[in-house]
TrEMBL record:
Pathway: Cofactor biosynthesis; coenzyme A biosynthesis; CoA from (R)-pantothenate: step 2/5; Cofactor biosynthesis; coenzyme A biosynthesis; CoA from (R)-pantothenate: step 3/5. In the C-terminal section; belongs to the PPC synthetase family. In the N-terminal section; belongs to the HFCD (homo-oligomeric flavin containing Cys decarboxylase) superfamily. This is Coenzyme A biosynthesis bifunctional protein CoaBC. The lineage of its organism: Bacteria, Pseudomonadati, Pseudomonadota, Betaproteobacteria, Neisseriales. Its cofactor is FMN; Mg(2+).
Length: 217
């Protein structure tokens, strides 16, 4: 059982991949399973928080007793987060949001024309975490960084660039789709490595650290 360290806190999370349409039946996505974000949503709930989970498409069961909002594209996830965020004290961005979307997506299914491959034009998606962190009445923001190399240097730079007080760094090849995770928490006091553990254990450890950073009410 988990200590009730988040009683009275309202926590908003994003999880899973996004799906950027190419046409009505095709799209660009990534290998995020949603496991870490869902584990954190459950850990926050178990710590006594009121939880809203905004999720891209995943194969996971919806956590019980959590407000659930399904999102597809990065733009729809961004809109859902911006609408929900004023009612929350903490924002945890776990989703693997696509950096780009298809600017010339087709309203009709693309037909194959032999010898004429279509060209997809990409355009940048909004950075959901950075937008929330920049709000005048921003909630306490937590970011994730999955890196394949130079983990801590990239993660520390990301924490400063996105202006989040707490950033969870993990090695990408371990994290995506796996059941366990090796993570380092980065805050103003420096680096806090956690022992390798499953995502449920990692989520509880993140919640414990986060709870200790929240302003006393
Ligand atoms: O820059 P990068 O995508 O590696 O940063 C990861 C962190 O930023 C994660 O917390 C992720 O959920 C968040 N993010 C976001 N919107 C984006 C890109 C990343 O919220 N468009």
């Amino acid at each position: 059982t988990q200590a009730k360290t988040l009683v009275g806190r309202r926590v908003l999370l994003t999880a899973g991949p996004t799906f950027e349409p190419i046409d009505p039946v095709r799209g660009i996505t990534n290998l995020s399973s949603g496991k870490m974000g869902y584990a954190l949503a459950r850990a926050c709930r178990d710590a006594g928080a009121e939880v809203t989970l905004i999720s891209g498409p995943t194969a996971l069961p919806r956590p019980a007793e959590v407000h659930f909002i399904a999102a597809g594209s990065a733009l729809s996830m961004h809109a859902a987060v911006m609408e929900a965020v004023p009612h929350h004290d903490v924002f945890i961005a776990v989703a693997a949001v696509a950096d780009y979307r298809v600017a010339n997506a087709s309203a009709e299914k693309l037909k194959k024309t032999p010898g004429q491959a279509p060209t997809l034009t990409l355009t940048e998606n909004p950075d959901i975490l950075a937008s929330v962190a920049a709000l005048p009445r921003a909630p306490f923001c937590v970011g994730f960084a999955a890196e394949s190399h130079n983990l801590l240097a990239h993660a520390q730079a990301k924490r400063e660039r996105k202006r989040v007080p707490l950033l969870v760094a993990n090695l990408a090849q371990h994290a995506m789709g796996a059941d366990d995770n090796e993570i380092v928490l980065l805050d103003d006091h420096g680096q806090h490595p956690l022992p390798r553990m499953d995502k449920t254990g990692a989520a509880r450890a993140i919640v414990a650290h986060l709870a200790g950073m929240l302003p006393i009410r």
